[in-house]
Design brief:
about 55 residues; alpha+beta; 3 strands; about 20% helix; elongated
Length: about 55
């Protein structure tokens, strides 16, 4: 089992709970970015998505 801290999307507090925030009951997400690799096969697609968001 991977123990990563999670962050509540509603209140912004950190927790180790996986299903919901113990403070407000909101959804939790992993706030850590994905691992960086210079040989990223999907870098072209990530750049295209960034340009579409702007």
């Amino acid at each position: 089992m991977v123990w990563l801290m999670r962050k509540c999307t509603r209140c912004g507090k950190y927790t180790l709970k996986q299903d919901k925030c113990p403070h407000c009951g909101g959804e939790t997400r992993i706030p850590h970015p994905a691992k960086f690799s210079p040989d990223d096969k999907y870098a072209k697609y990530k750049g295209m998505m960034r340009s579409l968001k702007e």
